[in-house]
Amino acid sequence: MADPRGFLKVTERETAAPRPVEIRVRDWKEVYEKRDQGVLQDQASRCMDCGIAFCHQGCPLGNLIPEWNDLTWRGDGKAAIERLHATNNFPEFTGKLCPAPCESSCVLSINQPAVTIKEIEVSIIEQAFDRGWVEAHAPERMTGKTVAVVGSGPAGLAAAQQLTRAGHTVAVYERDDAIGGLLRYGIPDFKMQKSDLDRRLKQMQAEGTRFRTSVNVGVDISWDELLRRYEAVLVATGSTKPRPLPIAGADLDGVHFAMDYLVGANRRVAGSEVENQIIAEGKNVIILGGGDTGADCLGTATRQGAKSVTTLAIGKMPSTERAEHQPWPTMPDLYEISSAHEEFGERKYLASTVEFVGSNGKLTGVKVAETEFVDGMRQPKPGTEIVLPADLVLLALGFTGPETKSVEEQLKLPLDAKANFDRASDYSTAVDGVFVAGDAGRGQSLIVWAIAEGRAAAAAIDKYLEGSTDLPSPIKPSDRPLTT
């Protein structure tokens, strides 16, 4: 490290300033201001030359965090982006969207605030794009082998880029009208602007990756036909089946899944006409689920002009400090305030949803009760029910797995015990030539795991096609983050 005592000199964690609330809620631009390079270099100096850098363990990609922190401190941005790209195809995605398990594992965080790893990561890639250091890397030779990647989320895109650079002819199939998966229509612009995605896709096209939009594999083209056309197929369709809440009133007009709401809103922001769009303007909105998707719904409803927004969580309010059963370097369950929570709305914990209340088929309220724990199980406490007024309910309760019907019927691809696509340690399946990566095989997870699995699956496919591979393989499907 350039300054092994930097963490003793710069003891405060300083992050990018958000734009004023009263300004940012009136547009869809990113919340945070551009990072000051001098501050970033000071923050990078806090990386403390650990004997064992546990941030490596926290990052599924195996990002070389101490190396590019040091290069940022030295002001060598070109070398920093080379080290960052060595393990991560899309650091601008992870830097803005990943919850940073690397920071939870930072050795400095044992008794000080962690190094601002995510912000340093974003600064490196933004500087690289600004200065023209991000170039297309077309393959030196073509193998003559063909690969179809189904799904254009982070797992599919990472695999496609790696396989294209290895010299294979790669086509990415996407059933939507634009490439990106949830990066395109699931993530609001105030978290990551779509230009970040578009500039990466431009790079991938220049390298030779081909994109096929508005093609629903299994409907527009069968899985069997796809496998006949290509020598390998990667299923990277994500975990897209929303988790329902089977209680009375769930069929009322006004009760919607979170992604149906977010996709329509993102399409509208992109300038598309959206039929039957779900709009929060002037409504009392209740969001069930306190995770990132719920926060995305909150920020979106705020910008649409909701009258009120209440987020309900069935569990207890998380602690602001590590619990004893979640010691360092595990990733703890902590109370967090996102930018959306700073802007508007109310959060309620220990709130069990009992029933959706309505009149003439339309939602008018949500009956909730206090949550009590009986034999470790959460359930409504009798006699505590109240009805909260609601015109719109958004279910942000997670996902139960991938959409499997056409794959099961046409390829006879088996599922595992969790209703994900079953795969071996090399990402292969029981069907020769078919591989699975990302949430479709892992279950709902983080973007950093999706990219890591995409890279690893690409190495497995390259080996399957060529007999050996030089592509890196950071993880196996059985790998899990160090959490409790």
Explained architecture:
With 484 residues, the protein is α/β, with parallel strands linked by helices. The protein has helices at residues 6-9, 21-24, 37-44, 54-58, 65-74, 77-85, 91-97, 101-104, 117-130, 154-165, 182-185, 194-207, 223-229, 258-269, 292-304, 339-343, 405-411, 439-442, 447-466; strands spanning 146-150, 169-173, 210-212, 232-235, 241-242, 255-257, 284-288, 308-312, 346-348, 351-359, 362-374, 377-380, 386-389, 392-395, 399-401, 434-436. The protein has three domains: 6-130, Alpha-helical ferredoxin (Fumarate Reductase Iron-sulfur Protein, Chain B, domain 2, Orthogonal Bundle); 146-240 and 400-466, 3-Layer(bba) Sandwich (FAD/NAD(P)-binding domain); 244-397, FAD/NAD(P)-binding domain (3-Layer(bba) Sandwich), CATH 3.50.50.60. The chain has a five-stranded parallel β-sheet, with helices on both faces. Strands 6-14-7-8-9 form a five-stranded parallel β-sheet. The two termini are 32 Å apart. The model has no long low-confidence stretch (mean pLDDT 95).
